[in-house]
Amino acid sequence: MSLLSMRDLSINLARAPSSGKSPGGSAGSSINMVNSLTLDIPEGSVFGLAGESGCGKSLTALSILGILPRGMHATGEVTFKGRDLLKMDEKTFRSVRGHEISMVFQEPMTSLNPVLKVGYQIEEVINTHLAVSKKEAAHMAVSLLRELNIPSPEQRVREYPHQLSGGMRQRVMMAMAIACSPSLLIADEPTTALDVTIEAQLLRMIRRLRDDKGMSVLLITHDLGIIAENAETVAIMYAGRLVEQAPVAELFRAPMHPYTVGLLGSVPAQRGTKLKPVRGMVPKPWELPAGCTFSDRCDFAQEACSAAEPEFMEVGDSGAGRHRSRCIRTDDAPWRNGNNKS
Amino acid sequence: MEARGLQKTYSVSRGVFGGHAALRAVDGVDFKVAANHVFSLVGESGCGKSTVARLLLRLTNPTGGQVLHKGSDVFALKGDDLKAFRRSVQIIFQDPFASLNPRRTVYETLSEPMKIHGLADKSAFPDRVRDLLKTVGMVDVMDRYPHEFSGGQRQRICIARALAVSPEVIVADEPLSSLDVSIQAQILNLLIELKETTGLAFVFISHDLRVVRYLSDFVGVMYLGKIVERAPAVELFDSPLHPYTEVLLAAAPELVPGRKKEPPLQGEVPSPLDMPSGCPFHPRCPKVFEPCSRITPELRGDAPRAVACHLHNAY
């Protein structure tokens, strides 16, 4: 049973009539940022969403919370516990956001309010969503920080964000996110700004929340190493589309999309072996090639690749549609011969 | 190039009545890097690795120790010798958005250093610039401005600028960390190609252990201003000696699904203003024992391998 299911989620950026000079075709048209995303996040598991900057992974997260930037519009269905979030009115949404679904952002310094004590900021979340007294909320804030391994939490709640280190701030963000025991935690590049040892501490904490509280986590990252070690299922995004989705072990053992193969080939592993990264750069959303959006960078592209966009089809032998890829060459999988480095 | 007992202490104000405190950013760093080799400095933020980069380039003066370039003390250089040093040691910065002049075309950016050092006749500049750009994998971009390029392309231009004066040493301070993974790999391939074709010496500064393992010949692991372990890259990654190196290696994510991980290191790096007694790592060290909090271990061992830990150096 999935906790959250997306059906054909598309996100479009409407062009203001006056901005006809900027790229992207005629004035008044819209630019497609995310294109018919369909995925299911099961209960009690970590779902990894990976891709390079600009592939639409963060927009997908923001659309779940109904906080897309101005001018962006989401269509399709995002069903959470039987309710369609895209059709929910703002008043109802406010009781879901931060309560049943919450989010940890990449940059804790810009997401915390610099002029409020961190204790107050955590208590605010609790007071908004739970029927508890102010005193209880204050007590909960301290115990949340203690649970997240912050030393002397009684002191810390009285401090301001600038008095804390980066790792500590991210833990405060985490405390705010889990204060109301959400069923879904969205973590958007939660450790990118942190050192490796602090990163390892935080990821361990995320795994513990999943194991102890049965929380589902949507883990968004560009680092496939983090996905390998923390997620059960992984989806790879490219140019606003899902190009591959699979159980983690399967994706690393037998990747079925040339972009995934390229991403894996970009990670320095063995000395002396030349890296085989994807060539070129991610195209702008208004300059996508015809047919398969990856065809202009793909080493295995054929004529048919530019004719029509491939379907997101089931591949491999894990069954039940668990391994899917958007590529027409999965039958002969030419990247297997010496190109598969995982 | 060689660093000998390099030290840099900053004086930090402790508020109105606090007076001043000494912040030891770099505290006795020694290493050598030879032509055609890559020496990497790794460590977490605040360990002093970027300060070492600045010292190597003589962008800031040390409070102790020396930097030697081809046997002469870099900080004693004057006049023509200093100019020659400026030519032979170049840097690539982390952020290619901040390190290119937005008002200059690629041609202007790349020809300027040649002009300053009088390396070629002016009429030869266009050809040289074209060659440089070809070396870093770019064509027909001479008349364009930095804003027209992506991060990866800008980093290529920065590399071309460093190469413009045919240097002997390149210091690269986190040159990959602002780039996407596939672009990182492209630039990494370029750096390796340069190392193999030009015989340059590289000092590579990074927090990314995967990249360091891939690229380096020798590695120094820094913690709170000190090198705690120094070794040939293969040995360091195969059999780390210092407990800090061990936990750093264990914490780095690998492409292995379901890998059992050691519990991560607890706590955070202490403030360099409030340095622990004895070994700077002892409050977080999983293998701490009696002498660690009393005696500061020295970096010792048979060159090229050395470690600063009481577990390995008996006192």
Strand order, sheet with most strands of chain A: 6-7-8-3-9-10-12-11
DSSP summary, beta strand count of chain A = 12
Which of globular, elongated, flat, extended, rod-shaped describes the shape of chain A?
globular
Count helical runs of chain B: 9
How would a textbook summarize the main sheet of chain A? Answer: 8 strands, mixed
CATH architecture of chain A: 3-Layer(aba) Sandwich
Derived from helix and strand composition plus strand pairing, the structural class of chain B reads alpha/beta
Instruction: Report strand % of chain B.
Output: 15-25%
Oligomer: heterodimer
Most extensive chain-chain interface: A-B, 45 and 43 residues
The side-by-side strand order for the widest beta sheet of chain B comes to 6-7-8-3-9-10-11
* Helical proportion of chain A, percent range: 25-40%
CATH class division of chain A:
Alpha Beta
Distance between the termini of chain B: 32 Å
Question: CATH homologous superfamily of chain A?
Answer: P-loop containing nucleotide triphosphate hydrolases
Tally of DSSP β-strands of chain B: 11
Helix content of chain B: 25-40%
Write the layout of secondary structure elements.
The complex is a heterodimer of chains A (342) and B (315).
Chain A: E1 2-14, E2 30-42, E3 46-50, H1 57-64, E4 72-80, E5 83-84, H2 90-96, E6 101-104, H3 108-111, H4 118-129, H5 134-147, H6 153-156, H7 166-178, E7 184-188, H8 196-213, E8 216-221, H9 224-230, E9 233-238, E10 241-247, H10 248-253, H11 258-265, E11 313-314, E12 324-325, H12 336-339
Parallel strand pairs in A: 3-8, 3-9, 6-7, 7-8
Antiparallel strand pairs in A: 1-2, 1-4, 4-5, 9-10, 10-12, 11-12
Helix pairs in contact in A: 4-5, 4-7
Chain B: E1 2-13, E2 20-32, E3 38-42, H1 49-56, E4 64-69, E5 72-73, H2 79-88, E6 89-92, H3 106-116, H4 125-135, H5 151-163, E7 169-173, H6 181-198, E8 201-206, H7 209-215, E9 218-223, E10 226-232, H8 233-238, H9 243-251, E11 306-307
Helix pairs in contact in B: 3-4
